[in-house]
Specification:
The chain has about 475 residues and is an alpha/beta fold. It is about 40% helix and about 15% strand. The protein has 19 helices and 13 strands. A hairpin with a 2-residue loop joins β12 and β13. It starts with a helix and ends with a strand.
Length: about 475
């Protein structure tokens, strides 16, 4: 079975070469989140950009663009631009999956979707990962081998797929379509892209929503395992404090530690149906599969609700439900992320700047993910060619553009503290934190309406509007596989 970066790490005539480039032509099309998802009417097109913007003679690459028209027949001139996470996710697929969250914005504004270079249909930079290269079951030699194999199969020079190279593509699309300033929405890694676009093109930025915030000062990698452990501890503490969950799953944190210790000694063999074909397949389920499943389940409040039940069942000897979740997550991420683009970002913008003197390896070792993810990133990036990174890339965004920052209290990767760090030089910023929520808030409760209000009139949202967040539904814990208690 093909493995994605989740196994290795669970651990955005050539337009722009001349200012007088012609407009981008769009045609009717349908976009979707994938083959099994319904289509959404849009207008699609492709724009050519130089692979290396500093070299006019470099090959051209295709950037895929889609516009979902506003409901208003006379829309505002400033579109709404969702930027996907990952790194390596498709903006078109992300919007298609969460389009309902942005309908209030679409009443008066087009939705402009640009697959960042290297993702989706924009000269996708992808490659397979050997199924043996999974966390906890790899050697440095294996990682180096498959990384070199990946580099050899990529269709373009991997140096030119960094954030600093990608943001001019979005500006070129804006100019080609004749739009005014953009309203940016960035989730996870997309929040990094949004902040950097606003640095480079402040005059082309009208408002910014940052959801699951990655501040420019933070390097992705060294804190992933410890933040994941913090979030898991909070989930287990919340279960213990809930009468029904605490009674049904006493000492759930201890049960998880015992499960992990047992798998460290001996991986289990589990037979489960393939999530796509339904055919039975035999899987090895060890600490790495446990870490990958638990980390991804902790991203969303709905899947958080079943996590204690899955851990309890696994600790009691029934590994199949948790293994099925791990298998399904790996398959989903394999399709969603372009690994070559992911590595181009990590190995240019993050890994080269790790300060090994300040990394708390003991804390990483004590986490359920462990040190292996960070070691794998460093091994991979030791042979991956680094690309251009702007000199001020790591500086926090300093602007008076209105910014709305969104965090989940239980986010396992971008905690609320990250948003506070991003706010240090934001003159007009408001930070909303959702109780018990995980990673990504756009679709939670009344948040779609609040995002719509913010984009309509950028600035601080009134307290009486924000108070609706206190009534946001949080899925109660599952006590058995029939669902939560009534």
């Amino acid at each position: 079975m093909r493995k994605s970066s989740s196994a290795l790490l669970c651990a955005l005539s050539v337009l722009g070469l001349a200012s007088g480039a012609s407009a981008l032509e769009l045609e009717d099309c349908r976009i979707s989140a994938g083959p099994a998802f319904p289509g959404i009417k849009a207008r699609c097109g492709t724009i050519l950009r130089p692979e290396n913007p500093a070299d006019p003679d470099s090959p051209a690459i295709e950037i895929s663009v889609a516009v979902v028209p506003a409901l208003d027949l006379k829309p505002e001139p400033d579109p709404f631009v969702p930027l996907a996470g990952g790194p390596g996710g498709s903006a078109i697929e992300f919007y298609s999956a969460y389009s309902g969250a942005f309908e209030p914005v679409r009443r008066h504004r087009d939705i402009l979707l640009v697959d960042q270079r290297g993702t989706g249909s924009s000269s996708r930079m992808d490659c397979d990962v050997d199924e043996d290269i999974i966390e906890g079951r790899y050697s440095e030699e294996q990682v180096l081998r498959v990384t070199r194999d990946c580099l050899a199969t990529l269709p373009h020079d991997p140096r030119f797929f960094t954030t600093s190279v990608a943001v001019p593509d979005l500006e070129a699309v804006r100019e080609a379509l004749g739009y005014g300033a953009l309203n940016l929405y960035g989730v996870s890694y997309g929040s990094r892209v949004a902040q950097h676009f606003a640095k480079r093109y402040p005059g082309s930025t009208r408002s910014i929503v940052l959801d699951g915030v990655v501040p420019p000062q933070v390097l992705l990698g060294p804190e992933i395992a410890t933040e994941a452990q913090r979030a898991l501890d909070e989930i287990f503490a919340r279960c213990a404090g809930d009468d029904a969950c605490g009674k049904r799953f006493p000492d759930i944190a201890q049960a998880f530690r015992r499960l992990r210790a047992d798998l460290e000694i001996q991986s289990a063999t589990v037979e489960i149906p393939d999530p796509v074909t339904g055919q039975l397949e035999t899987l090895d389920f060890g600490p790495s599969e446990l870490a990958g499943a638990v980390r991804m389940l902790a991203y969303n409040a709905n899947s958080i609700s079943i996590l204690p039940l899955l851990v309890h069942a696994a600790a009691s000897g029934n590994l199949e439900p948790l293994a099925a979740q791990a298998n399904m997550i790996a398959a989903q991420m394999s399709d969603a992320l372009a690994l070559g683009m992911h590595n181009a970002v990590m190995c240019s913008e993050d890994a080269p700047f790790y300060d090994r003197e300040t990394i708390d390896r003991d804390a990483l070792e004590a986490s359920y993910i462990g040190i292996v993810q960070l070691d794998a990133i460093e091994a991979m990036c030791s042979v991956w060619p680094a690309g251009p990174v702007d000199d001020d890339f790591r500086a926090p965004l300093a602007t008076d553009i209105p910014v709305l920052l969104l965090s989940g209290e239980a986010d396992p990767i971008t905690p609320p503290e990250y948003a506070e760090r991003a706010m240090v030089d934001l003159a007009q910023a408001q930070h909303l934190t959702m109780k018990y929520q995980g990673h990504g808030q756009a679709a939670v409760g009344c948040m779609p309406r609040l995002i719509g209000l913010f984009v309509e009139a950028p600035g601080r949202l009134p307290d009486d509007e924000v108070s609706c967040l206190e009534r946001s539904f949080v899925m109660p814990f599952f006590l058995d596989f029939t669902g939560p208690a009534p």
